[in-house]
Amino acid sequence: MKPSPDRPELLPELVEVAPGVHAYIQPDGSWMINNTGVVVGSDDTLLLVDTTSTEARNRALLALVASASSAAPSYVINTHHHGDHTFGNWLMPPSTVIVGHEVCREEVLAAGLLAAQVLTGPDYGHIKVRPPSLTYSTSLTLHLGTRVVELHHPGPAHTRGDTVVWLPAERVLFTGDLVFAGGQPFLAEGSIQGYLSALSCSALSTVSFKPTSAAAQFSS
Ligand SMILES: [Zn+2]
């Protein structure tokens, strides 16, 4: 199955999982076709969880995000360094702060655009490397007005620089590639032991999944 921009019947959609909190879902979720998150603060601050892989897909993401918020993104959180989550960083305005774990930044810079040379299926268009400019080591909390957005590093799991994004009031968790709907974990650059530990970390162990791929909304 081909990626959505090439198949009109497979258009991405923005699904509101809590007021002002959206999952951007791209069919069909195969290689280099990820889901992302869109969070609008009480003060209208706009935060994105990840970008996507190709120029066309990132422009489609921004076009649909504009239907949820007229603001420019203040923050983009990179859940890890893989190109389907970071290749759109460069399309964000210079004022957008790209946030990621300190190892994520290292890995974005080390990997460069290699993934586009290895996974040659999509037409990537114009892409450039733009690493996180704000990094953290253990956890970081952002306040979008009264809306709280927590970033936690669960340790090496899918990659060495993973971040999960937790909205405690809304009980919404953006897991990056720690969780695939209907797919097995991908750990080629991560850690099996770390992955098991990540699933046991507090944010993941106190909730039960109602997966929507990009965002999972939870009940205790
Ligand atoms: Zn990944």
Automatic annotation (TrEMBL):
* Ranges in a coiled coil: none
* Any matching Pfam family: Lactamase_B
All copies of the Metallo-beta-lactamase domain together span 33-217
Q: Give the organism the record lists.
A: Lentzea kristufekii
Put simply, this protein is called MBL fold metallo-hydrolase
Q: Which SMART domains does the annotation name? A: Lactamase_B
Record-linked Gene3D superfamilies: Ribonuclease Z/Hydroxyacylglutathione hydrolase-like (3.60.15.10)
